């Protein structure tokens, strides 16, 4: 019954780490990025709406993202836990997620924040663009996303830090080592005694 969230700037390895950490805790990884890209490639109504935002380096508007995530969190495979990757990205989305979970009688257990220097993030983005041929991975789009992260998503980090459920992990270096650090940080947090709510 573990409900996790992973957050961090573009290029911080959220997708890679989400898969490994989710597998360790036996919960599905729920990535809004994958859902958006799938919809764009299949030219669904949502995908067509999302494409303009994604290609320009902007976030998909909250009302579209919220509806998509809400539907996903009603599916059977996430009933006993999940690891969210890419949501919430804004303070209003964080409030929306609280409401979605509260309606099911749940709360987030732990939020993992990946941290890495800008130069390393940019180099990872360049490699990913070459390896995966992703049209949304350009320097201009990357820098716009990093700016948006700092202006919007960092506020989400502050919200969860204020609740005392944020664990920060050094996202520099080799992916396997980062996974180990993230798992250890979550396990240590979950094992620590909690004050009564």
Question: How many distinct helices?
Answer: 8
Measured by DSSP, the beta-strand proportion falls in: 5-15%
Strand-pairing-aware structural class: alpha/beta
Helix percentage range = 55-70%
Radius of gyration: 16 Å
Largest sheet properties: 5 strands, parallel
Q: End-to-end distance, in Å? A: 18 Å
General form: globular
Q: Give me the side-by-side strand order of the main sheet.
A: 2-3-1-4-5
What is the H/E string? Answer: EHEHHHEHEHHEH
In short:
The protein has 197 residues and is α/β, with parallel strands linked by helices. The protein is 58% helix and 13% strand.
Topology:
Layout: E1 2-7, H1 14-25, E2 29-31, H2 32-41, H3 45-55, H4 62-72, E3 81-85, H5 91-103, E4 110-115, H6 118-132, H7 139-163, E5 166-170, H8 175-191
Helix pairs in contact: 1-8, 2-3, 4-5
Keywords, separated by commas or semicolons:
five-stranded parallel β-sheet, 197 residues, 5 strands, globular, alpha/beta
Report on the structure:
The protein has helices at residues 14-25, 32-41, 45-55, 62-72, 91-103, 118-132, 139-163, 175-191, and strands at residues 2-7, 29-31, 81-85, 110-115, 166-170. Strands 2-3-1-4-5 form a five-stranded parallel beta sheet. α1 crosses α8 (175-191), α2 (32-41) crosses α3 and α4 (62-72) runs parallel beside α5. 58% of the residues lie in helices and 13% in strands. The protein is α/β, with parallel strands linked by helices and 197 residues long.
